[in-house]
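hey so i finally got around to running the thing on that chain from the lab meeting. sorry it took forever, my laptop kept dying and i had to restart like 3 times. anyway pasting the input first so we r on the same page abt which one it is
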Amino acid sequence: MSKIRKGDQVVVLSGKDKGRQGQVLQVVDGTHVIVENINKVKKHQKGNPNQPNQQGGIIDKEMPLPVSKVAIWNTGAKRADRIGYKKLADGKKVRFFKSNGEMLDA
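ok and heres what got predicted. didnt touch it at all, straight out
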């Protein structure tokens, strides 16, 4: 169980996009995530005539960020927060915010 998952709202802690927020689109591996509209680069892409929707040109693309450079956004406290785990009485493992104890997974 990873601390940051697809669909989480995160904020960037360092780098050129420091302070910007976005939604996690994909967890690439255990150490990198792709965040919506964050860490965009220009890619020179060659067109492929066999795929009609892939045209050539310069496209904007989101690149992976290390998980250590993002923190989950706590909407209640309006700031970045850390994540912890605890087990409920029924044995289910859930994530919670360290600052106020509020649960993420209901």
